[in-house]
Amino acid sequence: MDSYVVTYALIGLLALTSAFEIDISQKAYFSWETAFYIGFILSYPTVTVALGGIVAGFILSFRKGKRWLSFLYSYTIICLSSIIAYELSLLTFNRSGQIFHISLLSLVFFAVVYFTANMFFVFLSYYVRFGVDGLVDGAKSIFTGALLGVYGVGILTGYLLALVIHSSGLRGTILFTALILIVSRVYREYFKMAQHFKDLAITDELTRLHNHRYIHTWMDDRIAAEEPFSVLLMDIDNFKRYNELFGHLHGDKALTFLGKLMRSTAREGEQVSRYSGEEFVITIPDVSVEVAEERANAFRKAIEEAEFPGPDQSKKTHITASIGVARYPEMADKKQNLMVAADDALYRIKVAARNRVAVYSTVVEDIRRELDGLDVSEDIINTLELYMQMMNTRDRYTYRHTERNVRYAGKLAERLGLSLDVQRHIRIGAFLHDVGKLQTPIDVLVKRDPLSKEEWDIMRNHVEQGYYMVHEIKSLRPCLDLIRHHHERFDGFGYPHGLKGEKIPFEARIMTIVDSFDAMTTSRPYQRRRTMLEAFDEFDACAGTQFDPALIEPFKEVVREVGILPSEFEEDTAIF
């Protein structure tokens, strides 16, 4: 056949089929250029096919816009790899003539040489552009199931086209082309539909972010590969109130807007998902805790500064978010523990303030941080760590209640100008004031219904239990009065000994007001959570009866300064 006809036919067929790519996955697609070039190189003179490929390559590159140079290089690799594989096959199997007489062994040889040559040119480009590190990254991106499948489909389809050409010439090639174009069209529609249903399975419909299922699968894959990553657990502050003020329809609009905002804020590699109603998870691979905290603050700031849609077009609203940060594997070795750690960090912000970022820290770190700057022996710290770890494992509320009380009591002791030794004893005593609850039966400790008289007697006994537990440790004996008497009342109607007025140790009087404030401002199944001002009114009403009146105003000042209030989202079950 005239070489010009072959050249023109190849150019036309490559130009026609180049627009019909077949998606193998979201990151890989099959282009018909490979199949047609292999089919023609196996059937027609090398020079003729090479000429047609060069002309077609330049024509097709104009369609690629700014990517024309990258496309032309990739296209050149296909041409050179095909020619090298064909010529080496001819030499190896001593074939004569221009039509390649296909045998299984020669086809395998052709495929191996084509793939090897192709990889050589690809890795050469990575090395020239990115150096030695680029070779490693290139290997990771190429040696995947999808991309290897692309090579296999291209070579096999090229073999099939060579058989068609050998049997029916260009007429058969035209029919073959028509068939593959129909197949391409049908497959493209099928792929779109399949991808659509796949996206629905892993996408939250309202925010268009990834959903709960996707993020768990992502974390499972990273943990299975032992690859480190950070988790940012984000909760919208006061979103329940937002829905109450503006209605759930506007709440949904705010979530939709938030989804767009988070997608635009996320960097490459960061996975953003809606975890539950107003909770979101951002996962970040291969960054330090410090970088993860910076990224958390970037998300928080973007939300804080954004104007969210209000009840009408003329009004905009603002919302804020709090974020807890944890990292695998340093802070947890399992997915469940990692999410608990992130939730633990988030919980502390919701208790202390809003619109903040917190990194998870262990009970040991909490204790050392709270006692930083105080002259406390290592033996005392180790004992505190042991007790607090036991308490946190057994009853999360009691630990959190203790943590808040340590902050209140320490600040109040500072404001009262007490000596450093007394401040130290008060803070340590605040850590240990409920340690006797380790001896309280768990069914009594977490009971949601009102306690019976016998159960109240058991609960009240925790002060004596704590006293005897700590009494055996000589260095902690200065804290005994606080532990034993923090439930005494100023009017003498408290327990365990009914002490009255200034007969109650001063440290215990401090603990009484601190402990009661946290109890009043904490949600219970049987009691409404009071606001800060409501708690202050209760202090005024009970001055001289339950509380030392001299401590009320200083403590109000501490609360206004520290601003640590329990979260309205808590569901607490402990009883005091």
Please characterize this protein's 3D structure.
This protein has helices at 3-17, 32-41, 46-61, 68-93, 104-130, 132-142, 145-202, 212-224, 239-246, 248-265, 289-305, 335-352, 363-370, 378-394, 396-415, 420-432, 442-445, 453-460, 462-471, 480-485, 506-520, 532-542, 549-562, and strands at 22-25, 28-30, 229-236, 271-274, 279-285, 308-309, 316-317, 321-328, 357-359. α1 (3-17) runs parallel beside α3 (46-61) and α14 (378-394) packs across α15 (396-415). Strands 4-5-3-8-9 form a five-stranded mixed β-sheet, with helices on both faces. Strands 1-2 form a two-stranded antiparallel ribbon. With 576 residues, the protein is an alpha+beta fold. It has three domains: 3-202, Arp2/3 complex 21 kDa subunit ARPC3 (Orthogonal Bundle), CATH 1.10.1760; 204-360, Reverse transcriptase/Diguanylate cyclase domain (Alpha-Beta Plaits); 362-576, Hypothetical protein af1432 (Orthogonal Bundle), CATH 1.10.3210.10.
Short description:
The chain is an alpha+beta fold and 576 residues long. It is built from 23 helices and nine strands.
Q: What count of domains describes the coordinates?
A: 3
The tally of strands reads 9
For the residues shown, what is the average pLDDT? 82
What is the CATH superfamily label of the largest domain?
A: Hypothetical protein af1432
Give the C-level CATH assignment of the largest domain.
Answer: Mainly Alpha
**CATH architecture heading of the largest domain:** Orthogonal Bundle
Oligomer: single chain
